[in-house]
Amino acid sequence: MAGAPAFTPSQTSGPYVSLVLTSVEEWAGSPTQPTVRLVGHVLDGAGRGVDDAVLEFWHVDRDGTCPAGAYRRVVTDADGRFDVDVADPRADQDGAAGRPHVGVLIMAGGLNRHLLTRAYLPFADDGDGADDPVLAVVAPERRATLMARDEGDHLRFDVRLQGDDETVFLDG
Amino acid sequence: MADEATRTYPPDDRGVHPPWLYPPYTATIGRAPHRAPLNVSPTATELAVPPSPRGWPVGSDDLTTRSGAPPIGERIIVAGRVLDAAGEPVPGAVVEVWQANSAGRYVHAGDRRSAPVDPNFTGTGRCLTADDGTYRFVTIRPGAYPGRSHHNAWRPPHIHFSVIGGAMVTRLVTQMYFPGDPLLDRDTIFLAAPEATRDRLVSSLDFDLTEPDVSLGYRFDLVLRGRAATPQVHA
After folding, report:
1. B interface test, pick of A10, A58, A107, A138 with most B CB neighbours within 10 Å
2. What's the N-to-C CA distance of chain B in angstroms?
3. Which domains, from first to last, does chain B contain?
4. Residue B121: which of B95, B141, B135, B96 has the closest Cα?
5. Of A30, A41, A156, B54, which residue is 20 to 30 A from A84 by alpha carbon distance?
6. Which value does ipTM take for this structure?
């Protein structure tokens, strides 16, 4: 039958999503492998922080399994900032096709549907990422929006919802 | 660029979901991405299945027993099934809900409206779907409350749902509304959904779910995005 599939449409998570979509440690467990700290802001088209946005992070290992503790959730503060320790995907993804990365899902008031993207760990070589199946289809000048940047004791990953340097989102 | 015919999941837009930009819902104007999402076939990352919870404290699915006294409000049961696009039940799905109290107030620091907080109601619940995909919450009917989208905007009573069922690619966050509500036709969030799909957001009064003398029952099924079917030629 033609026409729209019968699945349920999305609606915004709204501004009060953090009432229940908080840490998942209680039920999804804590990372047992080394972690990396991801710090960043969710920013709107005017560069203002988006508060009470919820971000989810996860990764899969070589076999496509999401290891225990690799699924994390965090809420942005009044400035749109988040700070979360995620399981380091690099050991789990060693030898896998593509560059080490974590999946990222963003929901917030004003987003009628969540957004999907990914954060790549800094490359160990000077490659441009064209050997990664997803980065390969991202215009080279926009790949930086998917890269977590090393800032010493943490990695920075900002999400820009809109504008010239808008994050690349995926229709995954 | 991913060829549609080879994708495990078809592009998720196809007129089911509201567009990111829907100007009558003014908050979308500054937050909707300007560029269409990149058409990539889901990889193992997007197809990942998050770890299943072992469970929650008893009563996580009953929003009326968070303190010694019951919350003020019309008691209701909200139940239904989580299904995949083929109509098969999704067992073990994580269903999380949040809602305003009967006066239309959330227990959230960001809700500074004058409506009263109910000390016996947090408005949050969690459960896991059973083997047949069913879930069930005991709660109270939420109140309408003033919206922010425009002058004299009122949000119809609704319950927010988050579902993690199957893979990350089928993640769903939505809202459930009540049948026959005249506020629906004025609500810019509800109206953001394409007209053909809006009725899927409205629960139905179901006397098979009621508890006589205690509680009315509303049925709300959630259907998750489905894998691509075998390509077919349409006349």
Report:
1. A10
2. 27
3. 43-223 (2.60.130.10)
4. B141
5. B54
6. 0.94
